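ARCHIVE CARD
CATEGORY: sequence design from structure
SOURCE FIELD: tokenized fold
FIELD CONTENT:
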């Protein structure tokens, strides 16, 4: 659990911008980037937190960016990333399927495509011969903090199945495309047991690529680096992680006979611990043996507990700073749905958690919400998207204003 902010700071931001509010700390993001400096290229998986101002911060630190939709490509361009077939390219588009509008955008801006299906290669070749591509390979196994984030193995829709590598390489050759690199991302949440296997699988793929007469410039380890959501969770040893991949890269270099770039594509690791979600306690009540603390933020803001049963540490802040005795509470939001509960066990079981006894007006701080928080928000129950604030040292600035209900209604009323 990380907490980059003081209670006074959070109170002043809540008073100024209201709740619900996302708050990010720039220094924590810079620290995480620095921890990965051994990799040739750190490519931010912006799906974790795609605010343009966060992307700018990444770019200023030399980080490249991954996009998984046309919208994310346009965000990267708006943040000042330069499109084109660089080595490494500033922007890479990763997907298993590509609609016509996205195809037109990657062609227009020469954004390399990290293809998870052979059909994408055919579609790209027809529209843009000479286009640079990566192959995202599903090695046949994966892992994840939940089944929903496991992206390897035969139950995953992601990547080109490992035995189809040669077919994909043939599509590249006949389509006149250029192979930039090989990529694997097999899930969110690193498992060291698997890592050796993943690195070994990559070396074998490079061998087969070479045997099929293709050259490449880089390999990508994908993302998946975990963070300690709970007290006592292990923190990732980035030097060890790099060491394993660097050894694989060296083996791959001896196969291809020249230097290869080593890319990493983290989302969560770079931003999760930088962010908190602030809510205000609006009601408390008892129901049988449960004590409920009801706040003004719900799973339309932070979906992770409802969707995966994810744990997020929480604090209650009293305006007068008073320390309160812990009280087992179910922390729930304002949505008209019983799953709108932040204290969940696996499988969405309501779980009271020991929290400072909260009362109306207190501030609820939900920690480690910088990744897959705001970016997964929705307008469910016609709730406008919350505002976002970036704190950089003594400076705090709004980086997304709160959406208004009128803006939402206008999408329909204008017709
Ligand atoms: N690269 C690719 C191709 C990915 O699909 C992902 C995540 C990443 C990189 C970054 O993974 P990370 O380093 O953040 O684990 N919404 C879920 C996580 C979904 C991840 C999807 N893909 C959550 O809240 O935990």
């Amino acid at each position: 659990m990380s907490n980059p902010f003081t209670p006074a700071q959070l109170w002043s931001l809540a008073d100024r911008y209201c709740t619900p509010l996302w708050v990010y700390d720039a220094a924590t993001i810079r620290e995480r980037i620095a921890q990965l400096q051994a990799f040739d290229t750190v490519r931010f998986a912006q799906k974790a937190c795609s605010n343009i101002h966060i992307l700018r911060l990444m770019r200023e630190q030399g980080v490249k960016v991954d996009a998984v939709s046309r919208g994310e490509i346009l965000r990267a361009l708006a943040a000042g990333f330069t499109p084109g077939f660089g080595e490494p390219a500033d922007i890479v588009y990763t997907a298993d399927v590509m609609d016509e509008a996205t195809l037109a955008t990657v062609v227009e801006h020469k954004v390399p495509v990290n293809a998870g299906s052979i059909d994408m290669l055919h579609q790209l070749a027809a529209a843009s011969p000479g286009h640079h591509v990566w192959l995202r390979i599903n090695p046949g196994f994966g892992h994840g903090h939940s089944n929903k984030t496991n992206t390897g193995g035969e139950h995953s829709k992601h990547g080109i199945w490992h035995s189809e590598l040669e077919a994909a390489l043939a599509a590249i050759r006949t389509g006149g495309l250029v192979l930039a690199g090989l990529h694997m991302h097999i899930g969110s949440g690193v498992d060291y047991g698997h890592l050796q296997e993943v690195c070994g699988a990559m070396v074998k793929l490079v061998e087969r690529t070479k045997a099929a007469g293709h050259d490449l410039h880089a390999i990508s380890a994908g993302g998946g680096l975990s963070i300690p959501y709970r007290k006592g969770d292990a923190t990732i040893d980035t030097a060890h992680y790099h060491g394993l991949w660097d050894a694989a890269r060296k083996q791959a270099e001896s196969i291809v006979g020249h230097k290869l770039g080593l890319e990493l594509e983290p989302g969560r690791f770079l931003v999760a611990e930088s962010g908190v979600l602030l809510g205000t306690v609006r009601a408390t009540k008892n129901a049988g043996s449960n004590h409920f603390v009801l706040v003004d933020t719900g799973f339309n803001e932070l979906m992770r507990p409802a969707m995966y049963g994810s744990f997020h540490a929480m604090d209650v802040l009293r305006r007068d700073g008073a320390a309160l005795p812990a009280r087992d509470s179910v922390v729930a939001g304002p949505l008209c749905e019983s799953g709108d509960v932040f204290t969940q066990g696996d499988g969405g079981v309501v779980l009271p958690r020991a929290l400072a006894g909260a009362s109306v007006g207190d501030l609820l701080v939900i920690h480690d919400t910088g990744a897959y928080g705001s970016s997964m928000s929705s307008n469910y129950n016609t709730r406008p998207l919350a505002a976002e604030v970036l704190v950089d040292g003594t400076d705090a600035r709004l980086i997304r204003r709160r959406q208004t209900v009128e803006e939402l209604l206008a999408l329909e009323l204008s017709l």
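CARD ANNOTATION: The first strand starts at residue 21 and ends at 25. The pocket of LLP is lined by residues 45, 48, 94, 149, 151, 185, 188, 222-225, 265-269, 304, 371-372 (CB under 6 Å).
SHELF: design records, drawer C
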